[in-house]
Structures are given as C-alpha cells and as structure tokens.
Amino acid sequence: MQFSTLLILKSVPMKLSIPILILSLIQLFIFGAYAAEKKVVFVAGPKSHGFFAHEHAAGCMLLADHLEAANLGIKTVVVTDGGYPKDPSVFDDAAAVVVACDGGVRHLLNQNLKEFDAVMRRGVGLACIHYGVETTKGPAGDHFLKWIGGYFEPYWSVNPVWNAQFKLLPQHPISQGVQPFEMQDEWYYHMRFREATSAIGTITPVLSALPPENTMKRLKPGVESHPHHGNPNVAEAVLKRKEAQHVAWAYQRGADYNYGRGFGFTGAHFHENWASLDARRLVLNAIAWIAKVDVPDGGMPSREVTLDDLLKNQDFPKPEIWKNEQQVLNKISQFRKK
User: What does the pLDDT look like over 113-158, one tens digit per residue?
Assistant: First the structure.
C-alpha cells in the first residue's frame, strides 16, 4: 500500500499530493488498527450454584462488554455451549482464552487436554477464573502448571470464604490503575504452583494476603485432611509459618509454549464483586496482558457497574423474595467506583 501511494504521488501535481498523502496515512492508520485487533474467547461453563453465585456466563459477558468498550483493539467472543466449545475452530485466531466454569473432575478442559494444549503451544494466553482454576491432580493438573503456572489441587489447596486485604500490589501491567482493596469472597489459596525457572516460565504473585486463622477451622473433629477444607500442609503454611497466600497470579511461559501468558484469579464466587472497580480492572488488565495488548498506565478503562448491570444474563431467575438483596447493595456501595 505504501509503495503504490508513492507511485501515485509521483504522477500528480504537488498541490494534490499533500491531500492524497494525508488520506493515505489515515487509511494506513485505520487498516493498521484493524490488523492489530486481538480476539479474546470467553468459555463459560454450565449453570452452577444458583442465583448470583458462580455466574459463569453473566460474568464473562460483563467482562467482554467492558473489554470492547475500552476501545483498545480487543474483540470478544463468548461461548456458552455449556462446556468445551462445540466448534473448537473458535480458537483458531484467538490471542487469549478466558475460562469460567466449575472445576475439579467437571472442568471443561479435562477431556480436551491434548487438543487445547496445541492451542496453548501457539502462544495463546489463558486466564482461569474462580472454580475454573481447580482441576484434578495428574495429567490435567500438569497441563495447568504449564498453561497458567498453578492450580487448585485437592488435598493441598483450600476454598474458604474470607475478607482478604490486599495492601501491596506488584509493579506489573496487571496492577496498573488498581488501588489496594479488600473484599469478602471465596478466595482459594495454597495453590499448587509450578517450580518455575527461567527456562520454563516465571510466576508473579498479583494478589496476596495472609488468611485469618478461622479459615483453617472447617475440618470436622478427627478429620486431618479434606479435598477443600484443610490439610496439614496448608495449616503449617498459614498457622505456623504465617505465609501470605497468593490468590491471583500471572505466568509468563517459556519457549516451549511460544512465550504465551497465563493468569489465575481465585475470586468471583459472588457475582456482585464484579462491581468493584479494583477487582474488575485487575482482571480486565490481566486479560489484555495475556492477549499481549498494552495495558494503559491507568489501567483498562471501565465504567461503573450497577446492580442492574449485574442482573443481566443470569443463569437463574431473580427470586421473588431475594433475601440477600440489601446485603448485596450494601456491599456494592462500599466498592470504589471510579
């Protein structure tokens, strides 16, 4: 295109060449912007916990809407097939994939490890949200370690509800425009992380906090270990060594995965938490980062999220008598909005 423009300029009078040059530069800018557009595929799992919890489709649609509204060259596709996409070609031109689904033995990637691994080896980014970070120990877990650097491993990790206070944030594109915040959520912790070296990738903790002792008191008397409630290893890490637990992290893969990127976020059990500008911006930043889109210094632009916004695209109808409505409204009122 530039070559043909130069040829045209040589064949026209000087008075006309400047307007043509300006028009050509505008065309180059427009076509270049479209060429740089990155596709993010959201894969939402089937219905789960009931109204306003584990709202996979609604959460994906909300995040997708805000990514597109940011006008930073990201286009989105939200797949709601109730599992792995019925048409896997949706991944063919993807820059990143975001998975929100029930995990463990039901994780929608478990039965498609080989096929999805080929997607990851192209350097496509992957973000897993909440229950989507949990899979099974063995082949599935090993793949998650390669894709996003860590995962929830039963009998190693735990899933209590607690108020996490994130007082320090790392210098990373994912934390740009995010202020220290606190939030009540089902923050999974004591993740199984990859033993990372420079040869295979780098893990960066993004959200870290020390859980309170009561998160370690869910085991029944006489029970030493439970797949989700507690185990000796996590008890020693939190109660004895007082180790801060990483509940969101970034992962830079190595050459074997074409330097793709991963992100894990264990929050978002409660759908109202997407109303938090800081939590929402952090996840939007992360999705842009794994898609290799430059994150603005002030973070991804994101308008205020209201209760009406949150009520859209729910898997379950709103109860005629919603007992938690005022509690949810009170919680939303405490979040930073802008």
Answer: 999 999 999 999 999 999 999 999 999 999 999 999 999 999 999 9
List, in sequence order, every residue forming a beta bridge with 182; answer none if it has no partner: 165
The rounded distance, in Å, linking the Cα atoms of 98 and 62 is 13
Phi-psi region of 273 (alpha: psi -120 to 50; beta: other; left: phi over 0): alpha
Q: Categorise residue 331: left if φ over 0, alpha if ψ from -120 to 50, beta otherwise.
A: alpha
Q: What is the pTM of this model?
A: 0.89
**Two tokens at 62?**
């909300």
Torsions phi, psi for 17 (to 5 deg): -65, -35
Categorize the per-residue pLDDT at 196 as very low, low, confident or very high, splitting at 50, 70 and 90.
low
CB atoms within 10 A of CB 316: 14
- How far apart CA 151 and CA 141 sit, in angstroms, is 7
Instruction: Give all domains of the chain, ordered by start, each with its CATH number.
Output: 1-30 (no CATH), 40-333 (3.40.50.880)
Whether the CB-CB separation of 255 and 200 falls below 8 Å is answered with no
- What are the strands, taking DSSP E only, across the chain? 38-44, 74-79, 96-100, 125-129, 150-151, 162-166, 181-185, 192-193, 201-209, 245-253, 261-265
pLDDT of amino acid 13: 54
pLDDT digits (tens, 9 = 90+) for 280-330: 999 999 999 999 999 999 999 999 999 999 999 999 999 999 999 999 999
> Could you give the CA distance from residue 330 to residue 334 in angstroms, rounded to a whole number?
7
Tell me the C-alpha distance between 134 and 102, whole Å. 8
Whole-number pLDDT of residue 278: 98
Burial 71-84 (b: 16+ CB within 10 A, else e): ebbbebebbbeebb
